[in-house]
Amino acid sequence: MQISPRRVIVLGGTGFLGRRVVRRLQQQGCSVSAGTRAPGAAPPQEWEPGVAQVQTDLAQQSVMARALSGAAWVVNCIGFYTETRQQDFHSVHVEGARRIARLVRQTPGQRLIHISGIGASLHSPSAYVRARAEGEAAVRSACPDAVILRPSVMFCQGGVFFGDLQQLVAQLPVIPLFGRGQTRLQPVWVEDVAEAVARVLDGPRAQRKVFELGGPDVLAYRDILQRLAARTGRRRLLLPVPFVLWRVAAALLSLLPRPPVTPAQIALMRRDNTVGEGVAGFRDLGIEPHSPVAMGLV
């Protein structure tokens, strides 16, 4: 199939980040399809008409080849925090990412944007964190021209991250901390990450191959909770909890269909989740990221 220069497929297109990437690329005038394991569901409200939901299956090369056919750009937003009997971190973040990158490399004129995350490390004790790093390496090896975006912890207005923490503050008189709560975070608005994808597609700005995307505010986890409590006028006791206890709790909770905390999230909270020194970021893409403090979210 001939490649259309404005045609894009967003893998994981119905997920938290993916559906916003789809909308932003629609606004940019792209013809967008959304790769999903379960096509046919009602489309997200954010989308304008015209998005095709395409069947994907990371384990089936022929299925993935059909999904990617004809697209000038492939945006891989696929990711998850909880392993299942059917899929583990390695099969999704490493083997799946490698299969996608190889297919892109084999298709003349096709380009790849791979979404990873700040903090990915080959030396991490966490299978999730290692898999993200191994996935980056697999993508670079299979498709050297791929652009890798590493967002920090993402938030949206009135929902994910700050909204979730606000519910904890409202419901619990005692709030357990990860360790002493000193882990530093650089929360990034999910819409800014979607904008970064759109800018990479523009081409001229994306001279670098790896971008770390963090918001303008660097906040310790304890400080975030204290700010949220102060906004609501509630007094809350912040209780330090050793990471070893968190790991035990997360392992037990992983048996639930929707665990409130996972081993992968615990691993990410052990280290600062901030943009590294000397790496490309929002400024290189001409983006001024939004501040959650200025937005009144924390």
Structure, described:
It is a single chain. The protein has 298 residues and is α/β, with parallel strands linked by helices. 35% of the residues lie in helices and 19% in strands. The protein has nine helices and 13 strands. Strands 3-2-1-4-5-6-11 form a seven-stranded parallel β-sheet, with helices on both faces. β4, α3 and β5 form a beta-alpha-beta unit. α1 crosses α6, α2 packs across α3 and α3 runs parallel beside α4.
Can I get a quick summary?
The protein is an alpha/beta fold and 298 residues long. The protein has helices at residues 18-27, 61-68, 89-105, 127-142, 162-171, 190-202, 221-232, 243-253, 263-268, and strands at 4-11, 31-36, 52-55, 71-76, 111-115, 147-151, 154-155, 174-178, 184-185, 188-189, 210-213, 219-220, 237-241.
Relevant terms:
298 residues, alpha/beta, seven-stranded parallel β-sheet, two-stranded parallel sheet
